[in-house]
Every structure is written in structure tokens, then in C-alpha cells.
């Protein structure tokens, strides 16, 4: 894939993920590649996990529900890892892979972050976090459309957003055991919103720097 093309899970538009080289990921991706499962189906599965996580966050209200939601966040990320590996290393790329590689991520982010905002009692903050997260992806893809390598860096890139959310859900399960407050979720959604905006700014600044250098 040439710089500037949409991210189809390969080339300069492929997100660098350390766990891609781990043994469990290679074995699991290899096993899936030998089945009839397609990378696009795995991408859709990430939305399903996010949807379950959204429901658990919205109506669970128990320590077990918070922990199950955290597991859903991580399963969403596993799907995000495996779809690209099955497509590229497994040789199952499709003509519409770029669409499935991007759109489900935006839906999954929105489901999870909006739910956290409502659960924390500040719905607008959840929507703000979801919008800011979508903007980080927009800035990344915009840089690619200008012929630059897509920039996956930032204080609240996707993996860091989901790590913060997972930690918050686990912390909330502990907090809920002793109190009916939801400070863990509130702090997390605020940090994700602010960090995502910072990520937009730093990615935009990096694009401007690269453009001036060309």
C-alpha cells in the first residue's frame, strides 16, 4: 500500500502493535486463517464485543458487570489485532478491507465511551470523548490522504484509550464494592476526552511539520 492510501491493514497504514509478534496471536491468527472466517467478520465481531461491553456498562451496576465489560474491551482489541493478521499474514485481504478496518473501530469507540459517560453521570463527556476519539482517526487518515505515512502516535491513541478504559472498569469494580460512587469512570472518560484532543493537536502538528519539510 502506498502512503496516502486508506488503511487496509498493511504497509505504512498499518498500526504498529507489539503483540502482533507474540506466539498466541500468531497461532490464533493462523488457526483462523485456515477456517472460513474472514477478516471483515472479525472486524464486525469487535463491534459486537463493544456492544456487549456498552450494555454491561450501561445497565450492569455490579462489580462483576464492570469486570465483564473490561473483558469485552480487551476482546474488542483482540479482534482489532487478528483481523489485520488474518488479512495480511493469512493472505485473506479483500477489496473492501479498508472499510472494515476503519468503520467498526469508530462504532466500537462510540459505543464504549458514550456508555461510560452515561454511567459516570455526565453524558456529554462521553459524547465528547467519542467525538475526540473519532477526530484522532480523522487526523491520522487525513495525513495519509496527503501522501504522508499515517501517524498512530499520541497520548490517547486507540490502544491507550482502551487501556485507560479497561483500568477504569477494573477500578470501578473495586470502588463499587465499597461505595456507590463512580469516580473511576468519571476520571477515565475525562482523561480520554482531554488526551484525545491533545492527540489530535500533536498529530496535526506533525503533519504540518512534514508538509513544510517536503
UniProtKB/TrEMBL annotation:
Protein name according to UniProt: CDP-diacylglycerol--glycerol-3-phosphate 3-phosphatidyltransferase
Keywords in alphabetical order: Membrane, Transferase, Transmembrane, Transmembrane helix
Domain of life: Bacteria
TM annotation in the entry: 42-67, 111-139, 183-202
GO MF terms held by the record: CDP-diacylglycerol-glycerol-3-phosphate 3-phosphatidyltransferase activity
EC number, UniProt record: 2.7.8.5
Entry-linked InterPro entries: CDP-OH_PTrfase_TM_dom (IPR043130)
Source organism per UniProt: Methylopila capsulata
Keyword Transmembrane annotated: yes
